[in-house]
């Protein structure tokens, strides 16, 4: 996948705008449908060459038109093809009707389908544009296909998945492979849609890139090509203070491990110096575990302010294992807008005091990075978490604007958003990254990149990507401790992401 198709995402509405713009520019829309259907047929023959019967399911719109073209192409190649339609094909209009009229294969109602061994199903029912609940007739077909355990090749997006939100609308096919056109949609990356798409193939059907890119919004897939120029590039004049001094706040004596994980991750990710700021009762246990990471006793707000006044500190991490309550709020507000990663207990501490936090970081430049998981997001942004109409991307962008902060909404489909509306969906994190302490590690990596002087959005995006790469290197069964050992600093000429560029 080339860099443009790798990062570009179009919502269904943006893709429809690109189709319309292509038609206005004089491009034959029926030719686009022909190329799309031919690409689907080619994928079916390549992926499922031993298929005894290709079952093509066609819907009432242009996705169905792609299916009729694919069915005709498969039949022309000598394959056994049977066609099943949802709704009355005689009601088709435009290019879809022309594709139906050109297809020599008679169609039957989808309710007449009985999947059997040796089938391969081509799902051309709805695609990415579905905005309503899947009809009962199709739900029964989805259930029968799943029960038969036959492969499904989805056209654009498995039918039943919302292309904007990535959620099933009552039911959805589980595809082994998806062929989409020009660009992926958010529903291909957001969970659970991503898990239902199988392998995703992006096919260029001939819409000029100037049109596609002109219709794209501010959402993309997270990738080094988008932020690598912001990364530090060490040279012979580099020294530890140029690479930044990261401070990580520790909890009490029985809750020190999370802060040490963040600190170790920050050091591994390229911070020049890292100091754990520890209350007095936790000094002995922290000193017994730290070597390259420095240690400073910071008991209360007064001692923190004295430290801030005299030390060269570049960025901060507060929250992992810190404890929920007034002390966390005082420390955060006492930093007076300095670059801060607020995680875990730090987020929860502002559940009933969020306006104080948002006001403290209301400067034009975002300096606060919030890293909530689902529960923490709901505590800080309950009005956003509870709405089902917004996608995860839309919720994260709204939260970032409300908080004047970069928000990293964690999960298998982590979304990074800035107050200006930019948003990235991360996709390189393996499933085994979901383990205790991995969030503490991520907070430290973000802190290290902030300490290096990266803007908050780029620091968060790069850190999330690096976090996923480290997990892939560590392999299944990783722990937070082993994850830290696989972190590699990112540089503009670094080998961490060289294989992807």
UniProtKB/TrEMBL annotation:
AMP binds at residues 410-414, 439. The gene is nnrD. InterPro entries: Carbohydrate_kinase_pred_CS, CARKD, Nnr, Ribokinase-like, YjeF_N_dom, YjeF_N_dom_sf. This is Bifunctional NAD(P)H-hydrate repair enzyme. Belongs to the NnrD/CARKD family. Homotetramer. Binds 1 potassium ion per subunit. Residues 223-494 form the YjeF C-terminal domain. Bifunctional enzyme that catalyzes the epimerization of the S- and R-forms of NAD(P)HX and the dehydration of the S-form of NAD(P)HX at the expense of ADP, which is converted to AMP. This allows the repair of both epimers of NAD(P)HX, a damaged form of NAD(P)H that is a result of enzymatic or heat-dependent hydration. Catalyzes the epimerization of the S- and R-forms of NAD(P)HX, a damaged form of NAD(P)H that is a result of enzymatic or heat-dependent hydration. This is a prerequisite for the S-specific NAD(P)H-hydrate dehydratase to allow the repair of both epimers of NAD(P)HX.
